[in-house]
Design goal:
The structure is a single chain. With 298 residues, the protein is of the alpha/beta class. It contains 10 helices and 9 strands. The chain has a 9-stranded mixed β-sheet with strand order 3-2-4-5-1-6-7-8-9, sandwiched between helices. The longest helix is centred in the first third of the chain and has 14 residues.
Length: 298
């Protein structure tokens, strides 16, 4: 799954890479960037983190012309009063100003990282920005894929959930459980057909930032036969007996209930040839024998 997503064989409008301090994901982001630079006409790279520029050095010289760098990392909060773009800038306008956007060109956007937007801008703004980047009627271009890195240990669960709902693919880095693999990730992919796929894979990243030794980690099924659990009798340790003997059951079945008529009385009524209505009042019924209109002079 991961290899198909990076190579573009599996379509994903918004791919989100969630990493942590222990399991960084910038190597995966570099794999996406190199693949996009070979397949797309333009790749807009929006950098917010201080180490983002190191990722651009891995791009081959023959594809450097496709990379359009939008530098937000120097003074994105505008504390120094520099003329560079900051977080208050409209990212769509920044991309449109530097790029040659039209529907005939294939465009991709790489963001490193979304954490700055989530920390200093409202969460709905970040989700709306991701959605607008993929909308060709707004950007004026055929944006085939948006890939963004997110440091999940910097944000609360509610913020992560909102961004994950916006993305079509969520790749979470995790500790490797295989001696022959350096990296591991859990991928949730929402296909165009609506099917949702969850998969856990181990892999290595080569010096050319390509995925090697990709192996799916399948859940281990325990085939050991389970011993049947003995059923507990809830009436086993009671001080009184809840069960009935056969003789007690027969005696109970012969008891005539007070609210029913026995067979002899029913036969006697039917043999008289007259229909009767049997009504047995309840204890709560209140009958007044006196005429309520007796005091009226009619």
């Amino acid at each position: 799954m991961l290899g198909d997503l990076i190579k573009g064989r599996e379509k994903s409008a918004i791919s989100l890479i969630e990493d942590s301090v222990e399991e960084p994901g910038r190597g995966l982001l570099s794999c996406f960037l190199l693949s996009l630079s070979q397949r797309m006409d333009e790749v807009h790279v929006l950098t917010f983190d201080p180490k983002s520029h190191l990722m651009l050095k891995e791009v081959a010289p023959d594809t450097q012309t496709k990379i359009i760098h939008h530098n937000f990392q120097n003074d994105f909060l505008k504390w120094n009063g520099s003329a560079t773009s900051g977080l208050e800038s409209d990212l769509l306008k920044e991309i449109s100003a530097k790029g040659n956007l039209n529907k005939e060109r294939k465009v991709a956007v790489v963001i490193d990282s979304l954490s700055c937007l989530l920390l200093f801008r409202p969460v709905p703004y970040t989700c709306q920005t991701l959605h607008r980047l993929c909308n060709s009627t707004i950007t004026g271009a055929n944006v085939e894929q948006v890939v963004a890195l997110l440091h999940r240990d910097l944000h609360d669960g509610n913020s992560l959930t909102l961004v994950e709902h916006t993305a079509s693919t969520v790749i979470q880095t995790s500790p490797s459980q295989s001696e022959g693999h350096e990296f591991c990730c859990n991928t949730l992919h929402k296909k165009i057909s609506g099917k949702i796929t969850r998969i856990k894979e181990h892999f290595n990243i080569s010096e050319n930032f390509e995925i090697d030794d990709l192996t799916e980690l399948k859940a281990v099924v325990d085939t050991t036969p389970q011993q049947p659990t003995p059923q507990m009798d809830p009436a086993a340790n009671l001080t009184f007996n809840l069960s009935l003997t056969e003789e007690e059951k027969r005696a109970r079945s012969q008891v005539k209930l007070p609210y029913t008529y026995d067979q002899q009385k029913i036969e006697a009524t039917l043999s008289s040839g007259e229909g009767k209505i049997f009504y047995q009042p309840d204890e709560a019924d209140d009958f007044d024998e006196e005429d309520p209109d007796d005091d009226l002079d009619v």
